[in-house]
Amino acid sequence: MKALQTLGKYELLEKIGAGGMAEVYKARLTGVEGFQKIVVVKKILPGYARNLSFIKMLIEEAKLTSVLQHPNIVSIFELDSVDQQYYIAMEFVDGRDLLKILARCAERKIRVPVDLACYIISEVCSGLHYAHRAKDIYGNPLNIIHRDVSPSNVIVSWDGHVKIMDFGVAKARTEDSKGSKNVLRGKLGYMSPEQVKGEDIDRRSDLFSLGIVLFETLTLKRLFLGRTDLETLINVRDANIEKKFKKYPFLDEPLKDLLRKALSRDRETRFSTALEFQNALNDYLFQKKQRLDPSKISQFLDSVFDKASGDEDNLMPRPRKVAGPGEDSEIELDAPSTIVGRPEEKSEPSIEELSRQLQEASRMNAADPKTDAGTVTPRSGTAQKRPKVPREEYSTEYSYTLKEESSASIAVFGSKESSPRVGQEPEAISASLDGQNFRLRNTSGYVFGPVDYSNLVNLVQTGAVSEEEFVSIDGGEWLRVRELTTVRSLSPNEALRTKGITPIYSGSTSKSGIVRVFYQIASRQLSGKLRFVQGSAQKEFYFYKGKPKHVASNLKQELLGPFLLHRGIVDENQMKSALGKAAEFGGRLGDALVSMGFVKPHELYWLLDLQFREKFLQIFKWDGGTYEFYEGVPCPVEMAPSDVDVYRYIVEGVRKHVAASDLKSFFAPHENSLIRPRKNSYLTMEKLPLNSKDQRMWAQVQRSRTIATALRDAVGNEEGKNTLYQLMLILYQLELIAFQPRK
């Protein structure tokens, strides 16, 4: 074969792939006496060749991973450069990657036999176990984590040998000079829940990804792929696989148990090592009296690709098919597959700066916005409706929308006007409000809008607009929302009154009592709506089996658009463009922002997670007002974007917004009482996210036995006093301690 070009000592024969970072070639290495060796060369694109930090990191990773010599790992021969053109020479494997194999099987409606699927994954386990335990030449652990285990990185040769590839580059391509913890790694649909949530990962993350590959090899269906990247991330985070099993009766119970362990959302209950995973697969095959070797894989590939007839390359990439309601997505080719797998995808940017910007949210004086009132709303009126996806299939359906905002409304965000003129509802307006433009104003003077009638309905139905706020119709006088009877009737609180539903809990809100309010709901695993009212401000927390799923408030500045604008994530021009495009996504602003490249999918996920967190924590600033809990009231949206541990949020809320000065009078009657641990059937202290300072304070309290003694002996400054009172509030209101008066 004639060479296309030369690169150092390699003749590049055929371009077999291209990606965001590299071009991939089949290449030939020649030597003396006619020596020839076929290899694969990945040529780093010029844009990355000029990135010194990338090249430095790439070289370091190549040094590490070049020591990986194992029959189930594609070897890296060298990393070199010619005229500042960097390249990697890799082992040539004559075969097909698993993605292409599965796509071919799906196209021809040929299921991969269970025993062959288990054997392939078992071989990958062998390579992973070796890599996870690999040491450098000095005997130091390399602590390698693949981070990108997926079908396109598993290569199967025509003679039936299985290898995993891209250890070095898959890891290297996601690093930058700011550190590895700030970047989302790998392909979205093959991440682990801890990757999605931005937590530290270990080798068990690779095993979760490999569990996904096993499931997809068995079923030829994508496991977590959603209709958007954001939905995919949420599906991975929730890792709900039980309902999937019902669709595949050929998966017997032992195999499902194996998949459950591999795909456990809690990494502590997963396989701890790749060897343990491999042993489980081999035990399963042994129990089925199956004994396999590469020859059976080879025979299967020959039949699937018609290799004997020369049809092995007759497979063109097909358009991606994403699941509709109640469906699983087919295995698809999302990029041309190569002999050694696809070239690495373009790396995601660091989010360190983004995280820094987001931290300022903790200093914002936002009283629990209803971002979801403006960012996650039920579709009604004339807005385009999105098909409902059963919870068991996709875990949740999200619609991040700001559809009550128009391009014109961006200019009046946060504007102030004079006091409203309260008028009466004109009869003509009560007859028909369609076609009118509305502006909204709260009692603090914040003006929002204009919005159309259908979006006003959405705001009222989801609690983003309360009955005590004001509305101006087509620039007219300000009216109370409750005076518009056609709108007031849509209020969920009006529906409660009409049906005569009464709260099962109610009372006055105080900083010392909010913890107990949440505990009553969480400990008893109640479902319903918790409503807080303070003047004209309202917050509504929706719970399902004790877990908060949605937070609403009537503060318009906390909708997704203003939330992003105020933090500099997008500018006004970008927001206007996204608002104009949101209609194409059924009004979902988040999807529009992602489609236009203004926000990355994983960034939007974290932004919404942060937004939910901030809305939740702000309630701990409230001191006054009332609360009511209505059992059985359904959530107006499917689910919160966060996987919330309510006790973690309680501890964080108290730490951030409750001080010793808020609690001194509350604990005054108990200062000299003995502090006794209390047995709690719902909760233990070990389940609370207490930090080291809390632990030290608790040890001191146990020695001092009373608050007064602890204050005298152990607390020497205001910070220590805050820690003591905050800890006592948390433990007392969560019924983990009791006060016993001295005799």
- How do the strands of the widest beta sheet line up side by side? 1-2-3-4-6-5
Give the uncertain stretches in residue-range form. Answer: 172-184, 314-322, 333-431
* Total E-strand runs: 23
Shape: globular
Q: What is the helical fraction, as a range of percent?
A: 25-40%
SS-based structural class?
A: alpha+beta
Question: Total domains, how many?
Answer: 4
- The CATH homology group name of the largest domain: Transferase(Phosphotransferase) domain 1
What is the mean pLDDT? 76
Portion of residues in beta strands equals 15-25%
Number of helices: 29
Backbone CA Rg: 30 Å
Briefly characterize the structure.
By secondary structure, the protein is α+β, with helices and mostly antiparallel strands.
Description of the molecule:
The structure is a single chain. By secondary structure, the protein is an alpha+beta fold. It folds into four domains: 5-91, Phosphorylase Kinase, domain 1, CATH 3.30.200.20; 95-176 and 183-330, Transferase(Phosphotransferase) domain 1 (Transferase(Phosphotransferase), domain 1), CATH 1.10.510; 355-402 and 484-631, no CATH class; 659-740, no CATH class. It is 37% helix and 16% strand. It contains 29 helices and 23 strands. The strands form six sheets. It has a six-stranded antiparallel sheet with strand order 1-2-3-4-6-5. A five-stranded antiparallel sheet has the order 12-14-13-15-16. A five-stranded antiparallel sheet has the order 17-21-18-19-20. α4 runs antiparallel to α11 and α26 packs across α29 (718-733).
